[in-house]
């Protein structure tokens, strides 16, 4: 187990910690959730950077990086549904795409074909992470920062919340588009029989 793989795997327990903090009402919980999310998001970039720089790129690392991205983002999305921040059908669209593409990758792998990450999938993940970051920033702003500065920041929170929702919708577009691109590009491998 090398350092990039440890950074990759650390995003799973971080997701549980961030979700737990999202449900806490004590002062600082929302800020801690936001900053731990930022640490995990930076870790998503850092693990690949270290792996390439130190020539530690492995099949396990590639697979787990993609898998932990999905676990991390979908775990947070489910919490947002429970907290009534996101509608369930938006998250179901993302889940359907992830299961379809993962299933397609498994079928291709069974035939000896590796389906690597495409630019559309990376754009999708980045957009989702930014949207989640905006949505996590709102509780920090409206509870912790408002209390710290003793100032009503609700109007700013509403604008940031709307921005996060629009970014999430953009992420759904990239989700569907990249899923379709994967199916079109690898349909001969998956549906050859």
Textual characterization of the structure:
The termini are far apart. The chain has a single domain (3-188), classed as CDP-alcohol phosphotransferase transmembrane (TM) domain (Four Helix Bundle (Hemerythrin (Met), subunit A), Up-down Bundle), CATH 1.20.120. The protein has six helices and no strands. It is mostly helical.
Which descriptors would you attach to this protein?
mainly alpha; Four Helix Bundle (Hemerythrin (Met), subunit A); 193 residues
Put simply, the count of helices is: 6
Tell me, rounded to a whole number, the average pLDDT. Answer: 89
Please give the domain count.
Answer: 1
Task: Report the span from N to C terminus.
Answer: 38 Å
> Fraction of residues in helices?
over 70%
Q: How many extended strands?
A: 0
Proper CATH architecture: Up-down Bundle
Stretches with pLDDT under 50, minimum 5 residues: none
**CATH-assigned homologous superfamily:** CDP-alcohol phosphotransferase transmembrane (TM) domain
Overall, the morphology is globular
Helix-strand sequence: HHHHHH
- Return the structural class: mainly alpha
